[in-house]
Amino acid sequence: MGLSRLAVASVIGVGVCVFGIALTASPALTQEVEPPAPWVKLTGSHAGAVGTCSMIDASDIEACYMVRCDAKNGLIFEIGDATVGEYDLRLARFEIGRYKETIRLDGNRPDRRTIVLSRHPKLLAALTSGADFATMFAIKAGEIDYSTGFELTDARDQISRVAKGCSNKR
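RE: above sequence
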């Protein structure tokens, strides 16, 4: 009787192990993980800015979160994403560490929204605080609930470089 219970337990144990291995090996069940995207000096259409960009839903559409120097307004935080116009994104709530604030977004281009950082010094402080990650929630963006996150690795150093160059131009 004891041997038969041991045999059944062994068969169940082996079955669980095989099922677990099959689950981890199955490409259909794996989660796609995007590689880290630290802040860097951007090029192309974002030349002169620093930030982080990532692909949206493994498509060719890129979302960028960046800081650049604007001749009129100084440092600008900019969201570059084809969907911001599509969803008429005008208000966003940012959460970075203990910082939480809802901010009105400016800009009339369909693929970009901006925030003048001199009007939002707490956002600038949060972006350069050394936090690892930021979360942004769209407020009143059409009929969708949209939220995203972006990495802040190296943001402090990169934004500092742009700020130094920006203060020299003004």
